[in-house]
């Protein structure tokens, strides 16, 4: 912490003194670099943090600059009024460009945003209002009482303040709830949705952020250069910007700034040989992608990793601490009352294949229900239908008395449903603690305005969330792993993190998809204890499992699926004796005298 | 009616070129699940190579084209080899990697051929033919014929040859393909090489239609990509239908909106993609998006 | 079938696996497993889901990263042979589930099974044999593989592997998702292949199928060998049922 403050203070002094050592051309370069840095931070937020491919950042930049230019020269408005209006215009355009993200992702989004960026350049090159290919010159000098902003030295300080604010705000977003949700969505939008993150709104937020930064950079650019022309906002600069973000490190905003500064300096240094510069940074982009995908910002971490491996240090020697059971909810009566979940005649077809065939089941509050069946019998499909990942071809799903058939996963999650996944869907680039935090944080994305108007409240809430996350980690014996990446942990611990995360979302119904897969005997025993305690705290549990020992001892009722149909349902001992079940598992019932006697199921 | 037909005809030849570009995109996507953002720049390289051999070494147009295809095929091989470590791992990173290659190729083009463009004369008599009152340029017919032949050859290659079948198998299930003895990396390399060859063919053909300049590939690449998506990414009939559709759309917007044609084209394209993200023929073979 | 009356198999090759270990991320899916498949024999690997059966098979094929003490097929050391070359050493692989080339016709799928051979008259003959073994595939030869039913796809996957004329066939859960009638059909095919002298390594969840198709079995649990023995003995062992039904 102290070193951080020292470095920060050092940087502040250096930034303050910088203009004194620079000639007028150099200060101009620095001013342009700062503008690119703001742009890169915006692109980093959208593409690196939120994972939304955005090749229209340069168009946002252009909208900001052009709107300022048009409003000042054409409508005769003052610079700052124009700037504010330009920012509004950019945000509107940003939301339009972001709309396709609701429907398409990855390369599709890439081409759509690129296309819209080209549409923008096409418009400014042709429209009379924007001065055609010549652009607009003679933008008035921005006025500030007592400061002559026509001096690039003084303009530098204005830009510096804006840049620091922009970077600080970006870091603030990344390190608090909103940023965590954005990063969670980038890592695994499915799991994020299942934890209640409103994925569509978050995608729009990403574009909103990108456009705000683009707009701010555009206004600054208009005030600095006081001339706008189409080529400043073309594809070449878009790729330059992309190079800055990739080389610097997509997922780190500081990395984006470093990338912007270094790439622009290289370009400036090779100003007389622009093609060589282009060749160089293109090659560097390729090399970075292949050899250092985390960019410059990720290098220290990689070096540390390499050193650790050289020294032959093994990974985590830390051990999982014991689970601390929940307080039992008094008056818990299992198996009574109105059902928490009713699945009625659900059918799910995939291209003619019937994965589920008229499946009906009812789960009472406080129950632990087991769903078993051979591979490919439709168990996970059933979970996907219940949790809203699939819309069933036929039938209804009622949760807490409401018909929620085909609702989006995040709505179901917010209604009180939580799940784990067969193949573990932890957010790989978030720490264990952050994984828990994403689930704990129930604030809505629409409440993100508080980032601007009430940052203190946001910070306070975040501190409270951290406290609760530490609680959860402590309860699940995960405190030692809080700061580690889930991927670095042994499988059994990852499984426990996923359960802790699902329960942290405070569900009334918890769906566990093969929680014991890959666990050893002792771990299975602990799991059984954990699940029972979760139930005792008032959560209804449905569990898909192949480990029959676990299912038999844990569940009150078992539903057996085979070939997409329910072939048996009842108490464990009863179900295990059903010939159809034995056949589904062993191939046929064989000689029934081979069957061992069934022990009483103890709870 | 007459004007409408004339507009369609005006768009078809450029549409055929878009279709070729789209075919290259689709082929690589179909076999590797990768979008090659350097494809447009390979088109530029192809256009310059073909025009250079045609204009300065006085090779016949067809031969110049073949040389161009061979050289760009080599470029495709290099791109695939460099990015191979990322295959089946991180497609977004690979996508950015191809953008990087695009930047490099763009710079190389400017270094070798300069920033200004060149006009390529039509290799066939330029007088248009009149059919039923419609004016059709002879070169348009040549473009259409070559595009059609290339498409048929590609379809035959994929459906009739062992290598073609193997390439499709890799796209469908690379593990099962490995188990029957197919070298997945080599199959991908060949896909990339053919994709680059198709780009060069498109670039060579478009030379006499448009002005050959460093910016050529950017436009063609984006329109070709849009065509591939419009038709249904990865689908061969889709690439052709999408290419022709974009070509005709272009021709209409050029007639009705003049300078703003690009703007309108992309807006229409965006709306279509949002309404139907799988395109006309859907994404049937691979679904990694 | 007796081994003495089969001169063809005396020149056959034994698959030997020693010390096979597979790690997935943090989890050890398979721990130090060893077994051998003598020429002309059928060996089964059974166990509950998630026990590490599929990983074992994929690791033998080299489709996933593995550590292995020794891996030999006859005199050939396979430890450094890439997955794509296994077929050229006479090892055929039938993957789990529906891993056919869904977008290609049935016949193309089968021909691709013979990718490592020349597509000539001899291959045509093998194709005819395959159609004879699976008449339904002959009827559907121009249909897209993805349009077949689950059972037909399984037949196709087996047929595709047979097209390379393997000496040893690795099968991963051929009964998965099939009805009892179809499982019977698969069993008949496996018995016939065994009768022809082919070695089989069968990974299965369906214990009955495995016991009838193989001569001896490994029971795996949590990535380790829990029991071994002849199929006849294991068939009546209550321990097996305990592992399966969790009783």
TrEMBL record, chain A:
The chain crosses the membrane at residues 27-46, 53-71, 77-96, 108-125, 154-174, 206-229, 235-266, 278-299. Keywords: ATP-binding, Cell membrane, Hydrolase, Membrane, Nucleotide-binding, Transmembrane, Transmembrane helix, Transport. It is a multi-pass membrane protein. Its main location: membrane. One of its GO terms (cellular component) is plasma membrane. It holds the Pfam family ABC_tran. One of its GO terms (molecular function) is ATP binding. This is Metal-dependent hydrolase. It comes from Actinoplanes cyaneus.
Automatic annotation (TrEMBL), chain B:
It is a multi-pass membrane protein. CDD domains: TM_PBP1_LivH_like (cd06582). Belongs to the binding-protein-dependent transport system permease family. LivHM subfamily. The keyword NADP does not apply. One of its GO terms (cellular component) is plasma membrane. Pfam families: BPD_transp_2. It comes from Actinoplanes cyaneus. The keyword Ribonucleoprotein does not apply. The chain crosses the membrane at residues 6-27, 34-55, 61-79, 91-116, 136-158, 190-212, 224-248, 260-281. It comes from the Bacteria. GO terms for molecular function: transmembrane transporter activity. This is Branched-chain amino acid ABC transporter permease. Keywords: Amino-acid transport, Cell membrane, Membrane, Transmembrane, Transmembrane helix, Transport. Its main location: membrane. GO terms for biological process: amino acid transport. Signal peptide: none annotated. It is found in: Cell membrane.
Automatic annotation (TrEMBL), chain C:
Keywords: Amino-acid transport, ATP-binding, Nucleotide-binding, Transport. SUPFAM superfamilies: P-loop containing nucleoside triphosphate hydrolases. One of its GO terms (molecular function) is branched-chain amino acid transmembrane transporter activity. This is ABC transporter ATP-binding protein. Belongs to the ABC transporter superfamily. It comes from the Bacteria. It comes from Actinoplanes cyaneus. GO terms for biological process: L-amino acid transport.
């Amino acid at each position: 912490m102290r070193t951080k403050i020292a470095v920060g203070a050092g940087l502040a002094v250096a930034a303050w003194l910088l203009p004194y050592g620079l000639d007028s051309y150099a200060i101009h370069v620095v001013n342009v670099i700062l503008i690119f840095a703001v742009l890169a931070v915006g692109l980093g937020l959208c593409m690196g943090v939120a994972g939304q491919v955005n090749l229209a950042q340069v168009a946002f930049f252009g909208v900001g600059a052009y709107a300022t230019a048009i409003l000042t020269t054409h409508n005769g408005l003052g610079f700052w009024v124009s700037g504010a209006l330009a920012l509004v215009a950019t945000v509107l355009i940003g939301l339009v460009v972001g709309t396709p993200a609701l429907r398409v992702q990855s390369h599709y989004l890439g081409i759509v945003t690129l296309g819209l960026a080209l549409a923008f350049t096409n418009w400014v090159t042709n429209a009379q209002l924007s001065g055609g290919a010549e652009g607009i010159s003679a933008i008035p000098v921005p006025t500030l009482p007592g400061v002559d902003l026509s001096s690039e030295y003084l303009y530098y300080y204005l830009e510096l303040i804006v840049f620091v604010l922009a970077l600080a705000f970006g870091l603030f977003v990344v390190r608090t709830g909103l940023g965590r949700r954005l990063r969670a969505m980038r890592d695994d939008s499915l799991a994020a949705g299942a934890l209640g993150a409103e994925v569509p709104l978050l995608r729009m937020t990403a574009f909103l952020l990108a456009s705000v930064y683009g707009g701010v950079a555009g206004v600054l650019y208009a005030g600095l250069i006081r001339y706008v022309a189409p080529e400043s906002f073309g594809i070449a600069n878009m790729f330059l910007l992309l190079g800055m973000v990739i080389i610097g490190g997509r997922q780190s905003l500081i990395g984006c700034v470093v990338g912007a500064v270094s790439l622009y300096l290289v370009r400036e240094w090779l100003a007389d040989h622009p093609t060589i510069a282009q060749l160089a940074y293109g090659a560097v982009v390729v090399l970075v992608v292949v050899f250092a995908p985390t960019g410059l910002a990720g290098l220290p971490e990689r070096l540390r990793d390499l050193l650790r491996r050289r020294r032959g240090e093994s990974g985590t020697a830390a051990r999982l601490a014991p689970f601390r059971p929940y307080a039992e909810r008094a008056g818990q009566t299992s198996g009574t009352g109105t059902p928490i979940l009713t699945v009625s005649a659900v059918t799910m077809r995939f291209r003619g294949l019937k994965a589920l065939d008229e499946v009906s089941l009812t789960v009472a509050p406080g129950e632990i229900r087991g769903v078993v069946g051979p591979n490919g019998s439709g168990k996970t499909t059933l979970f996907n239908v219940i949790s809203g990942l699939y819309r069933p071809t036929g039938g209804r799903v009622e949760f807490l008395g409401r018909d929620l058939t085909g609702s989006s996963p995040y709505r179901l999650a917010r209604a009180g449903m939580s799940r784990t996944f067969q193949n573990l869907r932890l957010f790989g680039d978030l720490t264990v603690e952050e994984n828990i935090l994403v689930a704990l944080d129930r604030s809505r994305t629409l409440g993100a305005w508080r980032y601007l108007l009430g940052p203190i409240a946001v910070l306070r809430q975040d501190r409270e969330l951290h406290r609760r996350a530490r609680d959860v980690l402590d309860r699940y014996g995960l405190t030692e792993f809080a700061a580690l990446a889930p991927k670095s942990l042994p499988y059994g611990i990852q499984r426990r993190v996923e359960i802790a995360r699902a329960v942290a979302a405070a569900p009334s119904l918890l769906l566990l998809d093969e929680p014991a897969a890959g666990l050893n005997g002792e771990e299975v025993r602990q799991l059984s204890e954990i699940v029972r305690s979760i139930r005792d705290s008032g959560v209804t549990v449905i569990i898909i499992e192949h480990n029959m020992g676990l299912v038999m001892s844990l569940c009150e009722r078992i539903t057996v699926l085979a070939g997409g149909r329910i072939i048996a349902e009842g108490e464990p001992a009863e179900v295990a004796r059903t010939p159809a079940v034995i056949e589904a598992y062993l191939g046929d019932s064989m000689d029934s005298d081979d069957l061992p006697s069934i022990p009483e199921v103890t709870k | 009616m007459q004007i409408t037909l004339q507009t369609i005809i005006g768009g078809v030849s450029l549409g055929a070129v878009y279709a070729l570009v789209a075919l290259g995109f689709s082929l690589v996507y179909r076999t590797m699940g990768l979008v090659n953002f350097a494809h447009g720049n390979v088109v530029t390289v192809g256009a310059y190579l073909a025009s250079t051999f045609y204009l300065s070494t006085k090779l016949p147009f067809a031969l110049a084209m073949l040389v161009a295809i061979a050289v760009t095929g080599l470029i495709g091989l290099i791109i695939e080899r460099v990015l191979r470590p990322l295959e089946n791992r991180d497609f977004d990173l690979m996508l950015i990697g191809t953008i990087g290659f695009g930047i490099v190729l763009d710079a190389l083009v400017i270094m070798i051929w300069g920033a200004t463009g060149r006009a390529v004369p039509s290799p066939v008599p330029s007088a248009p033919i009149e059919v039923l009152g419609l004016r059709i340029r002879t070169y348009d017919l040549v473009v259409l014929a070559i595009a059609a032949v290339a498409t048929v050859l590609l379809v035959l290659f994929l459906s009739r040859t062992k290598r073609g079948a193997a390439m499709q198998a890799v796209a469908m299930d690379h593990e099962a393909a490995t188990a029957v003895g197919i070298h997945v990396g080599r199959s991908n390399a060949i896909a990339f090489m053919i994709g680059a060859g198709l780009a060069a063919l498109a670039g060579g053909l478009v030379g006499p239609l448009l002005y050959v300049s460093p910016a050529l590939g950017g436009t063609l690449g984006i329109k070709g990509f849009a065509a591939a998506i419009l038709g249904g990414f990865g689908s061969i009939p889709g690439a052709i239908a999408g290419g022709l559709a974009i070509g005709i759309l272009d021709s209409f917007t050029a007639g009705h909106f003049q300078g703003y044609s690009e703007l309108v084209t992309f807006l229409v394209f965006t709306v279509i993609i949002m309404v139907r993200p799988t395109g006309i023929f859907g994404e049937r073979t691979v679904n990694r998006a | 079938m007796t081994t003495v009356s089969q001169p063809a198999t005396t020149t056959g090759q034994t698959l030997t696996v020693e010390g096979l270990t597979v790690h997935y991320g943090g989890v050890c899916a398979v721990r130090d497993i060893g077994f051998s498949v003598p020429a002309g024999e059928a060996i089964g690997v059974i166990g509950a889901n998630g026990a590490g059966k599929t990983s074992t098979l994929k690791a033998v094929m080299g489709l996933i990263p593995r550590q292995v003490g020794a891996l030999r097929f006859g005199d050939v050391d396979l430890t450094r042979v890439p997955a794509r070359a296994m077929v050229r050493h006479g090892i055929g692989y039938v993957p789990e589930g529906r891993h056919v080339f869904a977008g290609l016709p049935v016949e193309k799928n089968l021909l691709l099974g013979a990718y490592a051979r020349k597509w000539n008259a001899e291959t045509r003959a093998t194709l005819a044999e395959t159609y004879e073994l699976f008449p339904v595939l002959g009827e559907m030869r121009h249909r897209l593989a993805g349009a077949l039913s689950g059972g037909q796809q399984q037949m196709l996957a087996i047929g595709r592997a047979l097209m390379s004329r393997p000496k040893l066939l690795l099968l991963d859960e051929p009964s998965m998702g099939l009805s009892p009638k179809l499982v019977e059909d698969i069993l008949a095919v496996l018995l016939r292949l065994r009768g022809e002298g082919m070695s089989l390594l069968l990974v299965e969840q369906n214990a009955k199928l495995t016991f009838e198709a193989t001569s001896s079995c490994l029971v795996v649990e949590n990535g380790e060998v829990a029991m071994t023995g002849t199929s006849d003995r294991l068939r009546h062992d209550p321990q097996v049922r305990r592992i399966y039904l969790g009783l």
